[in-house]
Amino acid sequence: MSSTLAPDAARTSAIHAPVTDFDPYADAVLDDPYPHYERLRELGPIFYLSRYGAYGLARHAEIDSVLRDSATFCSSAGVGLANFHVETPWRKPSIILEADPPLHGRTRKVVAGLLAPANINKLRVTMEREAELLVDRVLAKGHIDAVPDLCAAFPLKVFADAVGIPREGREEFLLPYGDMVFNAFGPVNERFKVCLDKAQGAIAWIAEVCKRENLTHDGLGAQLYAAADQGLLDPEEAPMLVRTLLSAGLDTTVFTLCNAMICFAREPEQWATLHAQPTMARQALEEVLRFESTFHSFYRTTTREVEVAGVALPKEQKICVFIGSANRDPRRWPDAHKFDVNRKANGNLAFGTGVHGCAGQMIARLEGEVLLGALARRVKSLRLEAAPVIHYNNSVRGYDSMPVSLLAA
Q1: For the structural domain made of 9-408, what CATH number should be given?
Q2: What integer pLDDT is reported at residue 5 of this predicted model?
Q3: Percent of the chain scoring above 70 in pLDDT
Q4: Dihedral, 105, 107, 108, 113 alpha carbons, nearest 10
Q5: Can you give the pLDDT at residue 88?
Q6: Which residues contact 115 (CB under 8 A, 6 or more apart)?
Q7: Residue 283 belongs to what H/E stretch?
Q8: Which of 82, 121, 159, 202 is 20 to 30 A from 249, comparing alpha carbons?
Q9: What contacts 24+ positions apart, CB below 8 Å, involve 37-41?
């Protein structure tokens, strides 16, 4: 996989936007990106990332506008730093995430229908039962590592069951596979190389379990194969979309739950509010998504010469959209730096927006709402017992470890 190189000095001098050598993928930035985002927003509505030869957007309004204009700012060139139009992709592009109309519309229609609220809500009862069982287990322990014991355990059970993949191998392979996919949205740095090397076993396992004969007969994966039988998909597209479900729908939910736990552990009065009103779980989840966005950055590519915030951009120009910054933009959110479950956080960009808004956001929201609701009903207080360990990834933000103590209501 090749990477986009920083431009030469002559090209940089022709940039008519603030230029910064900010590196969004540095460990120090990933430790706490928000002060950096504040500085990026203050640079202006658009700026130039000299290290990567890409423009950047950090304010809500400009990012929302770009994401809604898929004709001008495409995904088919890849949603990472590499430009698939001019570089050879290291893997076959996703037929939904990295596709433009008309291909995107055809495959998206199938997946969106599968993950529509009417279908997803059929999973609620099962998810609620599994959430109660999981809360029983963690309360019995009292002291847990919230990442493997809670935040990963729930999606690895309910989402993987919903897709219909075998149980053996989930814990070992599913998360490393998604980690590789999301690391690839950034540069070809050492983090990505190490991750790709470690994920070879996961890649082989995913290819095997996504075969029709290895899926349960009634899961989401089997329904994708049924769509191919009906002529709605090409036969080879069904396993590709099953893989897309597993890469896009698991790690992000795990990290969203991690981010919820860290928010509430650091803000006990906010947990007290939710504990008193567990029916607020969905609203609280939206505030988590806004305040501690799981996705922090990805890319779009210009399809023509276009002006953004007064700056002329050429065709095939990469633009990095900093979702984690947009969701804390004070131009959009009063007291954006505060975590407040009473806030109506509708309009956050945690799942993107426009035609490429996350097709699986309804099932992710359902998982988050169900588990947060179960915890709110049963857990009086939660406390962070030691410093959490950040999971370093080029595009998504979460944790590897989070020692927490839980007190039953």
Answers
A1: 1.10.630.10
A2: 41
A3: 97
A4: 120
A5: 84
A6: 220, 359, 360, 362, 363
A7: helix 281-291
A8: 82
A9: 37/322, 37/324, 37/325, 37/328, 40/322, 40/325, 41/325, 41/329, 41/331
Banded model confidence at residue 3, pLDDT cuts 50, 70, 90: very low
In angstroms, the Cα distances linking 156 to 28, 150, 159, 223, 374 are 30, 10, 6, 20, 17
What average pLDDT does range 318-332 have in this prediction?
A: 98
Pairwise CA distance, residues 337 & 144, whole Å = 28
Q: Write down the pTM of the prediction.
A: 0.94
| Mean pLDDT of all residues in 32-60 | 98
Q: Are 274 and 268 in contact (CB under 8 A)?
A: no
Distance CA 201, CA 343 (A): 43
Task: Write down the pLDDT at residue 89.
Answer: 82
- Burial profile 260-271: b = 16 or more Cβ within 10 angstroms, e = fewer: bbbbbbebeebb
CA atoms within 13 A on the CB side of 360: 21
Q: Tokens representing 168?
A: 């053996």
CB 202 within 8 A of CB 169: no
Q: Where would I find the beta strands (DSSP E) of 69-200? A: 73-74, 143-145
Taking the mean position of all CA atoms in its chain, how far away is CA 172?
A: 20
Q: What is the pLDDT of residue 13?
A: 55
Q: Are 370 and 127 in contact (CB under 8 A)?
A: yes
For 388-408, how does the pLDDT look when each residue is reduced to its tens digit (9 = 90+)? 999 999 999 999 999 999 999
pLDDT score of 93: 84
Give the span between the Cα atoms of 150 and 115, in whole angstroms: 24
Contact between residue 320 and residue 54 where contact means Cβ atoms under 8 Å apart:
yes
CB within 8 Å of 350: residues ≥ 6 apart:
289, 290, 293, 294, 295, 323, 327
Dig out the tokens for 100 from the structure.
């433009």
